[in-house]
Amino acid sequence: MTKNLLFCLEKEGGLAQLVIFVEEVVSGFDETDLYRSWVRAQATRSPQERNTRLENMCWRIWNLARQKKQVLHFHLEDTQDIVEKMMNLMLEGELAQRNAKRRLERERGRREAVADMSEDLSEGEKGDTVGDLSAHGDSVRSRLPRINSVDAMDVWVNQQKGKKLYIILISLHGLIRGDNMELGRDSDTGGQVKYVVELARALASMPGVYRVDLLTRQVSSPDVDWGYGEPTEMLTTRNSEDFLDEMGESSGAYIVRIPFGPKDKYIPKELLWPHIHEFVDGALNHIIRMSKSLGEQIGGGKPVWPVAIHGHYADAGDSAALLSGALNVPMLLTGHSLGRDKLEQLLKQGRLSRDEINSTYKIMRRIEAEELSLDVSEIVITSTRQEIEEQWRLYDGFDPILERKLRARIRRNVSCYGRFMPRMAIIPPGMEFHHIVPQDGDMDGEIEGNEDHPTSPDPSIWTEIMRFFTNSRKPMILALARPDPKKNITTLVKAFGECRPLRELANLTLIMGNRDGIDEMSSTSASVLLSVLKLIDKYDLYGQVAYPKHHKQCDVPDIYRLAAKTKGVFINPAFIEPFGLTLIEAAAHGLPMVATKNGGPVDIHRVLDNGLLVDPHDQQSIADALLKLVSGKQLWAKCRQNGLKNIHHFSWPEHCRAYLSKIAGCKPRHPQWQKSDDADNSDTDSPGDSLRDIQDLSLNLRFSLDGERAGGSGNDSSQGSEGNAADKKSKIETAVMAWSRGVGKDTRKAVDHNSSSGKFPSLRRRKQIFVIAVDFDTIASLAEATRTIFEAVEKERVDGSIGFILSTSLAISEIRSFLASGGFSPNDFDAFICNSGSDLYYSTPNPEDGPFVIDFYYHSHIEYRWGGEGLRKTLVRWSSSIIDKKAEDVERIVSSAEQLSSDYCYAFTVKKPGLVPPVKELRKVLRIQALRGHAIYCQNGTRINVIPVLASRSQALRYLYVRWGVELANMVVFVGECGDTDYEGLLGGLHKSVILKGVCSSACSQVHANQSYPLSDIMPSESPNVVQAPEESSEIRSSLEQLGCFKS
């Protein structure tokens, strides 16, 4: 709606003003010249002018319609209808503009990526057309053909014997348990809950799989069943005598509930975002403990790391990405429902503004989580082709055309210049069919029981449904969906109510979740249910429509059987259905289907051929399809038979076979230092430390003899000569041996803070670790804050019970300046996390050996998908495009800072932070070109660090836990009121946080204002692990006592 119209409506007496406005528009034009007006509107470049012309046309068209119908009065209802049509027209225009902008950005990024990859693709490389499925993923019947014979499955089973895989599944929201699932209880407890539980069971039943853990949230709330508060629940798996020899003490499938978020509340998924890091830390604890336990049972004493971590939905995808980075293991992703697609649908509806949508659904945080998941995932598992072609391609991180080009280069063994794209794999969900017996009888052919052959009693749910019907023997049209607008239940009721032949031939059953009272339902669900009840009353459908209030999960098969017994039809009329698991369930019970033509049902229908597809917006089409199946006995029988014949294509064993085959294609990854640890068979564990520590030093730690850019050797050609390398090696070996001798002999207090002085790095022997992660603009301010923190805990610092880590965006050369200017010694800190988390240094016990030691295993841990030179080129090109157009001379705003960069951090300095695009735009630039990196705006926007996608300061703390066993719960992180754009990761988690009041508060407006989502969406507001304190030593001490670090 344009400003003119809005002004008229907002003024007092708005209707009268609107009439005047309309009459002026209508009378000022020739009504016979609409086509010319349309051409002019289309040719107009200015969006504002185009919208004005289209608005005027709407009024003129309406006036013609009014004249033809001889409408004599101007009614308010007419006005509202016109306004709604105009708004829809303008929303479509805005959507078209957004799509055009996205298309241009993607095409430009694609051109730049191809240019960077230097050589054009040959005709042979071009391969498939854009619309070909193989460009997007693996089809149901392509590279991994369905197994249709027992012999073929036996061959595959034999190949898996001897493997003992450990698999992690993550599904955070909703209420998850193994039996009597409360599906439909709320919008979070739906088909995804059932899918992940059955997937865990099915995988654990496969040969070669030893253990499957399904990680979810522990809910100890009086509002839900006590079982959701149990830490562990074992899932019963399908019995198989063939694999009994693979069973063990900890084998099988388990639901593992990790406590995070409010202790006594069950909260919706939109409110879980501030607590994701707490889940990640808790899950990391569990996985490490279980990996060690499995190692003792089946790994010969070596930890058995997960072969993959699989996230389901955006929140679990975000968690899986962080866990994948912390453990350096492959990640898989299943989106289930995607945020960008939902945002587009909500914007089309026009009921909520973008800000209102984000406030309600936290949609921008969800989209960023999905983008990060694409950055990290090895494989994205989808159910259908539609999910790839119409949903995933909306994301910056996935371009099917560029993905095809990259695959062509990989096949030819040609460099992709640091570009990566996740592989899309179409694997439809599975089902267990062995317990299903299709219903062959009918309501008319029932045989009464006698004493010798009594009939089994009807399930109670049958009675609950049939009590609604005047004639319960008519075929039943069954819909099973929660009361959600996108499920389109109201259109189904309208179609049924307005088709008299259909009403005479059939009944309608609506299974819409569980409810106690309408007032207790969510506003959206209540609105849908009330609309259904009003339609039932409008069309007088009493005695023809059933809508029971309650059903159990175990009742669902009986509901399908009842519909099949009446020779009924199953319908899914959703506007868009990502997959449609209920369609497979219905087919397994012998029910033909009528389903939406948008989404997964198209693929299901192609395989099963057991029904009809309809346009969900076309009410008449829905009614005609239902009537055709209900009235046509031959067609009904044919569809039923086709469904039963082809249903094996969707069995769980086949799903799991395809799933495990995809995992087998991933390059194995796990914590790299395990190799050196495994090679060391020494059982030494003396106070002077074991030989294992010495081996660790010689294998993955290099003494920084000059303290300058120890991590940047890859960019320093002067260190490439053999002579220099040999000299360095000799010095390092000498330093290591000198240090090792010093450990055994030196008992000076400066090194030996307690009886276990030999532990290296020294943070291994601390009771608590304090992490100084305050993001100041200047080194002087950071030094002042550090002295204040030291003063607050001086007693514990001296006796060695507390160690310190400096976590900063500064380079190691700047840390040397910080230490010198602040009067600190390197040994005042146990470790230095620098370059925003891309480099990790330790202080050395003996100053003569050099001030710092760099952990090279940390680099191997974070280098996954690091773009290297290809990424650097793109960043330099981007930085050169940022200029001050208003300045007299063209001035570059962003400049490369080679002296501050390292192998895994490209640093840039910023002269005018206010002129630099927000960090979300830089991330988009990288993702569109298939470059995976973590862009961080630092030091109040005056520096930009781009580091590996899974590197960050918070991830470095998790590495210290995984690598050295430093408990996260024993860490205290000091931060300001705001900070760099990786600030959010430092607040959540198992560690404790102290926010220094008034420190870095200006950074909020400078750096975080233009993020994709507000910082408040992801900040834990009521966490007992987060306190605030003024920047005074006594107040800091009191805050630490409040956190339980010290006794008051």
Automatic annotation (TrEMBL):
Q: Which UniProt keywords apply?
A: Glycosyltransferase, Transferase
Give GO terms: molecular function aspect only.
sucrose-phosphate synthase activity
Query: Which segments constitute the Sucrose synthase first GT-B domain?
Result: 166-432
**Residue spans of biased composition, Basic and acidic residues class:** 102-114
Looking up Pfam families in the UniProt record yields: Glycos_transf_1, GT-B_Sucrose_synth, S6PP
Q: Which GO terms describe its biological process?
A: sucrose biosynthetic process
Q: Where is the Sucrose phosphatase-like domain?
A: 877-995
Q: Which reactions are catalysed by this chain? A: beta-D-fructose 6-phosphate + UDP-alpha-D-glucose = sucrose 6(F)-phosphate + UDP + H(+)
Highest taxon of the source?
A: Eukaryota
Q: What family is reported?
A: Belongs to the glycosyltransferase 1 family.
Its annotated function is as follows: Plays a role in photosynthetic sucrose synthesis by catalyzing the rate-limiting step of sucrose biosynthesis from UDP-glucose and fructose- 6-phosphate. Involved in the regulation of carbon partitioning in the leaves of plants. May regulate the synthesis of sucrose and therefore play a major role as a limiting factor in the export of photoassimilates out of the leaf. Plays a role for sucrose availability that is essential for plant growth and fiber elongation.
Q: What is the name of the protein in this document?
A: Sucrose-phosphate synthase
Organism, scientific name:
Salix purpurea (Purple osier willow)
Lineage, top ranks: Eukaryota, Viridiplantae, Streptophyta, Embryophyta, Tracheophyta
